[in-house]
Amino acid sequence: MAAKSFDVIVIGAGPGGYVAAIRGAQLGLSVAVVEREHMGGICLNWGCIPTKALLRSSEVFHLMHRAKEFGLSADSIGFDLDAVVKRSRGVAKQLNGGVGHLLKKNKVTVFMGQATLPAKGKVSVTTDSGTEELTAKSIILATGARARELPGLEADGDLVWTYKHALTPVRMPKKLLVIGSGAIGIEFASFYNTLGADTTVVEVMDRILPVEDAEISAFAKKAFEKQGMKILQKAAVKKLDRAKGKVTAHIEIGGKVETQEFDTVISAVGIVGNVEDLGLEALGVQIDRTHVVTDAYCRTAVDGLYAIGDIAGAPWLAHKASHEGVMVAELIAGGTPHPVKPESIAGCTYCYPQVASVGLTEAKAVEAGYDIKVGRFPFIGNGKAIALGEPEGMVKTIFDAKTGELLGAHMIGAEVTELIQGYVVGRQLETTEEDLMQTVFPHPTLSEMMHESVLDAFGKAIHF
Ligand SMILES: Cc1cc2nc3c(=O)[nH]c(=O)nc-3n(C[C@H](O)[C@H](O)[C@H](O)COP(=O)(O)OP(=O)(O)OC[C@H]3O[C@@H](n4cnc5c(N)ncnc54)[C@H](O)[C@@H]3O)c2cc1C
């Protein structure tokens, strides 16, 4: 059978791939998507969306316990873990269906199967019913990533879980060990701890949420400990001894190895790109550890072959993947898009309290040689935060003292994952402190703290 020909073939229908496909189709290109498992990729099915659905349940549970504080009553507060998970899976399913609908509406041809690249411009799709050969001038790799597994700490789905197991738990953990305090580890720690699991987080670096500003990490640690979480920093899980219903963890801390027993372990030690079994090495694609090497326009070393999203490296975020998808589709269609600027991509962690940031941390700004001005504003000084019953948090801003450029913004507290976008827009528009100070923020909102933090950096804060 003759190979089916397209302008663009996208491999993987995650937030990188499906968005690239839709944008390509909108620009008049004939587009095919090859997906081996699920529309929407990790993000919709096993990542961003189902975790946020779980965290919403734990947030409501937390608020129910505080009912009295709001003049309300709630008796016999409890939860049904199966129902919590069922809701999360339902939310993922709804969005997964939505992606299929969007691809159809934009006349993108979908092949459900495993893709390989037998030669330049060629894609082979293996489905249950055989193999289909496709050709295209441009191919976009968007195969994403999966959980990293460390030797000895491998998941077994019963005692030791990856994020997939943690999203569909076989039981409610009583004594939980979370290995790794990046966004994924901390979100699960927050979820299970709020539901009552006795939770310990082990982080090899000297602080939790290590990519965040050090002040935010310290604030988060204090807040989590107040909620009963145990946090071990500069600590490493060396070994897990598994027995029936229990795991003994050998944890190295301060030069000594101590043992602790848990009934469940979540391993959240990072991710690795899905670079294998595609035929990339034979094509001459450069791979750095587990990620495809690209230039700023997501071009690989092979002409006409692009890589976007998690397979193309950090930051491993859905919005970065989607933005790269749009950029590459526009490039292929003959446009002149701007490359994605990683330093303008916000990172959000939906734990309680939430954490969000964009741009340089204070340490990185100093390291880069900037003379800086730093502003801070605490949630306790904000009327809306008090009214919401969320007085815990802070907004920190970092400016270039010479030019007034907003170098970075770092927040912890209620709804900061929504607020951060204000600063992202500011950075995109290359705003200075002057524009931000002149901007009128509505009252009463949490966003007023974003204003006050800027004012504070220049000694003009009103409410603190
Ligand atoms: C628990 C968890 C929570 C997260 N929360 C957030 C969050 O809140 N915000 C955020 O921005 N990011 C979050 N992420 C990260 C986010 O999910 C990823 O950054 C995002 O999914 C990357 O998109 P992608 O398109 O590159 O790849 P993916 O979403 O991984 O999609 C890749 C797709 O390619 C398919 N595929 C792979 N190989 C082949 C092949 N050979 N042939 C055919 N198909 C193939 C896969 O089946 C998959 O569907 C989270 C991740 C996890 C694990």
From TrEMBL:
FAD binds at residues 52, 310. Its EC number is 1.8.1.4. Keywords: Cytoplasm, Disulfide bond, FAD, Flavoprotein, NAD, Nucleotide-binding, Oxidoreductase, Redox-active center. PROSITE patterns: PYRIDINE_REDOX_1. InterPro entries: Class-I_Pyr_Nuc-Dis_Oxidored, FAD/NAD-bd_sf, FAD/NAD-binding_dom, FAD/NAD-linked_Rdtase_dimer_sf, Lipoamide_DH, Pyr_nuc-diS_OxRdtase, Pyr_nucl-diS_OxRdtase_dimer, Pyr_OxRdtase_I_AS. One of its GO terms (molecular function) is dihydrolipoyl dehydrogenase (NADH) activity. Its cofactor is FAD. It comes from the Bacteria. It comes from Thalassovita taeanensis. Its main location: cytoplasm. GO terms for cellular component: cytoplasm. Residues 345-453 form the Pyridine nucleotide-disulphide oxidoreductase dimerisation domain. NCBIfam families: lipoamide_DH. The keyword Flavoprotein applies. The active site is at 443 (proton acceptor). Binds 1 FAD per subunit. NAD(+) binds at residues 180-187, 203, 270. The active site is a redox-active disulfide bond. It catalyses: N(6)-[(R)-dihydrolipoyl]-L-lysyl-[protein] + NAD(+) = N(6)-[(R)-lipoyl]-L-lysyl-[protein] + NADH + H(+). Belongs to the class-I pyridine nucleotide-disulfide oxidoreductase family. SUPFAM superfamilies: FAD/NAD(P)-binding domain (SSF51905), FAD/NAD-linked reductases, dimerisation (C-terminal) domain (SSF55424). It holds the Pfam family Pyr_redox_dim. This is Dihydrolipoyl dehydrogenase.
